[in-house]
Model the fold of this input.
Amino acid sequence: MSFQNLSKGSILYIEALDPYAIDPANNQFEYKGANLVAPGNKYTASVATSNNLSLSNKTNLRFRRVTEHNRQPLSINTNRIEQAARMANGTTRKYFIADKLSISASWEMVPSFRNETVDGGWGAEDIKNFYESTAGRGAFRIKLNPTVFSPELITDSAGALSDDYTYTVMFTSCDFTVIKRGIQPFWSVNITLEQV
Done:
């Protein structure tokens, strides 16, 4: 199997550390305090670099690519916060406060680790590890790439579109189900994020 280079990148990037970064030299990574060889495909340096998941920046806060492997439709809903009141003359007056996004995403049969995903992006264990970390319990930043433009415009700090698609969010729900076990377990992952 070879990794697929998706011309438009992933739709979801999470700003985080990357504790499960795989060393391309020996295909090893640190998992729950032990150094293990990643089961399955070899994770190459070029794939790691193109996904912003290289070993050299695992302790740096960066936008990490989340896999598109068997991702179901990503839902972006707007919750309008407003106050409406009927006036004495029968008209309605509204006070607009803010629009906040609610984002839902799910994956079916996604591998545990990035070396078995089709594009080399974060797998189920990476998402689970982030959700259970201190960073996942509070507010964090994400970038969405729903456009037809190059992902560099979305992920690069110098990109013109970067700020338009950067949101500070928190998890409102997250669940993981192991569906099948093989070289790696395959998971069903569902997450819901809400803009702060």
The beta strands are 12-16, 28-31, 34-37, 62-65, 75-86, 92-111, 140-144, 166-180, 186-195. The chain has one domain: 12-195.
